Structure formats: C-alpha cells, structure tokens
Amino acid sequence: MAKKENKVTEQVLLRLSSYLSALDQVQQEGKHVVSSMDMSKFTGYSAALIRRDLSYFGEFGVPGKGYYLASLKSQICGILNLNSQHRVLLAGAGNLGSALTGYEGLRKKGFHIVGLFDNDPLKVGRQIWNTEVYPINEMEEQNKELKAEMGIITVPAAASQEVADRMVDAGLRCILNFAPTAVQVPEHIKVRNVDLAKQLEFLAYFLSLKE
Amino acid sequence: MAKKENKVTEQVLLRLSSYLSALDQVQQEGKHVVSSMDMSKFTGYSAALIRRDLSYFGEFGVPGKGYYLASLKSQICGILNLNSQHRVLLAGAGNLGSALTGYEGLRKKGFHIVGLFDNDPLKVGRQIWNTEVYPINEMEEQNKELKAEMGIITVPAAASQEVADRMVDAGLRCILNFAPTAVQVPEHIKVRNVDLAKQLEFLAYFLSLKE
DNA sequence: AAATGTGAAGCAATTCACAGCA
DNA sequence: TGCTGTGAATTGCTTCACATTT
C-alpha cells in the first residue's frame, strides 16, 4: 500500500485529497464514470494536471472513457492511507481543542480523537464530548492503551514545544499544530502547521488592493 | 500602501506572514538588527529566498548590516495591510465558530469578530463571547452598522454557498472558509479555504511510509 | 568584513499537444 | 469519437554567486 516512489510532493498529496472531495460530489450526481475534465470543474485544477497527478501512481483511467468513480476513489484512499480509521490524541482542551473533538467532519473522515490532554486541573479527569482529559505528562503512559498515531496541538504557543516533545515520546508519528510557532521534532516525525491568524493576515492583504 | 506591483504570489504573502512571526521571536531576544540568515533560522526558508521576497517590495536592508527590526516589521505590516484593525463577521456559531470568536490569537493580531450569524433559533439573539448572534439573512442589513470587510464561514458544507452569497451581498471582500467544499464567489472576492479534515488526510499518508 | 540585492543558472511544476487505446 | 497517459515545451520558483554598499 505504501508507495515507495521516489518523492511525492506535499502539493500533490493535498490535491489528491481535493480529488477525493470532488469524487464525493460527482458521486452524488449519480455518475459512475468521471473524466479529468469533470474533476477539473469541481477542484479548479486543470485536467492535464489531474491526469498527471494520477498517472504518477498508476494507470487508473480508461482511455476514451474516463475513470471508474468507485475504483478511483479506492485507489486514492489507498495512496492517502484512508482505508483504516486513525486514532488521534489532542493536547489543549480549550475552545479550539473542544471544538475539534466534537467536530463531525473529522470523525466522518475516519479520524477519531481518543484522548485529550491538558494541564488545567479543572479539566483533567473530566470528559469533553465523551473523551477523557488526562494530564499532559501522562501522554506516553496513556497512549500505551490509547494506541494513537497522530496528534493535534491546540495549546498556546508557549507550551507547544513541550507538548510536541511529549507526543514524540508517546510514539505519535505525525502532528497537526495549530499553535502559531513551528515546533522542532525529529526527522522521522511529520508536522503540519495551521496558523489561523496567518490565514487572516494573508487575506488582509487583498483588502488593500484596488479601491 | 497598496502595492500595484504586477503580481505577488500567494506563497510570498504567506511567507511574509512567517517573517513577521520570526521578527517577533527575534525581538524577544532583544536584538534590533536582523539578517536574512537569522530569519532563515526561525522560518526554515533559505536566506536567499527571504532576501528576494523582501527586495521585491523595496530595499529594506542595509548592506553589510542587515535589516532594522522595527523598520522591517512595519514595512511588512504595511504590505500585508496589518496596520489597522480588521472587522470580521463569522457565520456558523457552532463549536468551531464559538472557539474562533473567543480565540485570543486572532484578536491580538488585530482581527475582531464583530458579529455572529446563525440560523439556529436557540442561538439567535444571544451573545457568545460578548458578541451578538443574528439570523443569517440579516447579514447585509446588520453589516451597515458593523462595517466588517472580512468573513469567516464555519457552517456545515451544505449551507456554505448560501452563507458565502450573503457575505458577498453584505459587502465583505474576503472570506476564510472552513467548510469542506469550495464556494463560488465573484471575481473580486478573495476566498481562502481551510479544510481541517484535509490536513489530517495529508498527514495520514506519512503513516503509511517506512513503518 | 559582512550582508544586501539581483542577474543568471538551475530546478520544479504545470501545461501543451498528440499518439494510442477503448 | 473521446479521453487517457506522457514526452516536450513552457512557465514559474528558488538557489547560486558576486558586485555593491556600509
């Protein structure tokens, strides 16, 4: 399942995820075969780019016809490793952390937040959205039971590095970091930073254009 | 303030935002002058790239010396249009929406959520984090008073297009969309999509590598 | 001496355009 | 005919390397 192909760029992986969404949308129209042009409509990426992306992983299409929707979907899921459920730890049971824990969208896509971690004594020992809150220093210990492989960081910037270290110790192999500072982790751990303020800063630029 | 330069790519804008964070970090070390190499340390981008990005907007540095921190910061803020506060409407007063409304990180960077919109009668008329909740169809009317220019969408996918349309009618000029489907807007409106599930799908790929 | 700003080179990503297959 | 898969062309982005400036 795990492709050993030389290197897939991050951009390609993100596009694959978009293609999946597009397929879901096309599926709701009742179609069973989809062309690169159809997908272009839904994703905004050019048909040529879509074909090249897909052909990198194999020949999934039928010339003159298109791609069989169900088959393509399962191929992409295979590439992205979405055929199994994924167990996730979340550190920082504040507003954002709680919101993500209760977010249907993640669960529906197969991501289950199985343990919360926070140092606030008012939160430790309680449950949020039916998920237990543990102290952060118990992460390694608790994950022997919880067996998660992914982590989400929603603590304030000052605590994010400490939390990332605990996640690495706990054996997590990839981390989604919402804190506004990048964290340092060993080579073999994959981190993705999502800085919400940065998204708005990006947009603010456009307010200064024309008019 | 608004540069009319031919075209800045989105990547450059996002990096500028990272440079700003780096400058904040350097500032805490008490330095007043910073080199492209210093910034490289904090951002992970190469010094050459940083110099090229900055030189695109002007000659901000002093050869042999570096960049004056305060001055560079204010230049970048000027480019990104961050010298003034920004007023933001948020539609979808659910978990994620409430969390963002209460999020210190946004306020500290000058983004103020001044009005919430939701169609749930249990929420309309109440306040969340001291911010009033209005019905979505009142957005245009309310924004005559609220005078926001930016919008955040945290409603479910099915409602996101409708909400985007209302935001356009209300005169908002850029939109941060957390719904997992892209929305259609007129040419002159800038949308940025942040699909949280997509971030985890991206990371899941790396779980399938090496072992 | 040290670091900027920038042509030119090098590399990566995307599109073009079409041969080949259903 | 219609659409895939892919070499070749193109476009765009990043790095190199150095003349220039303080």
Explain what this protein looks like in three dimensions.
Two copies of one chain form a homodimer. Chain A starts with 9 loop residues before the first helix and ends with a helix. Chain A contains nine helices and nine strands. A seven-stranded mixed β-sheet of chain A has the order 5-6-4-3-7-8-9, with helices on both faces. The N terminus of chain A is likely disordered. In chain A, helix 1 packs across helix 2, helix 1 packs antiparallel against helix 4 and helix 2 crosses helix 3. Chain A has 211 residues and is an alpha/beta fold. The radius of gyration of chain A is 20 Å and the shape is globular. At the A-B interface, helix 1, helix 5, helix 6, strand 8 and helix 9 of A face helix 1, helix 5, helix 6, strand 8 and helix 9 of B. The structure holds a DNA duplex (22 and 22 nucleotides).
What attributes characterize this protein structure?
9 helices, globular, two-stranded antiparallel ribbon, homodimer, alpha/beta, 9 strands, DNA-binding, 7-stranded mixed beta sheet, 17% strand, disordered N terminus, 211 residues
Which oligomeric state applies? Answer: homodimer
Largest sheet of chain A: 7 strands, mixed
Reading the helices and strands of chain A in chain order gives HEHHEHEHHEEEHEHEEH
What is the average per-residue confidence, as pLDDT of chain A, rounded to a whole number? 95
Q: If strands are numbered along the chain, what order do they take across the biggest sheet of chain A?
A: 5-6-4-3-7-8-9
Q: Which spans of chain A have pLDDT < 50 for at least 5 consecutive residues?
A: 1-5
| Termini gap of chain A | 52 Å
Number of strands of chain A: 9
Structural class of chain A: alpha/beta
Radius of gyration of chain A: 20 Å
Query: How helix-rich are the residues of chain A, as a percent range?
Result: 40-55%
Q: How many individual helices of chain A? A: 9
How would the global form of chain A be characterised?
globular
Largest interface: A-B, 62 and 60 residues
Question: How much β-strand is present in the residues of chain A?
Answer: 15-25%
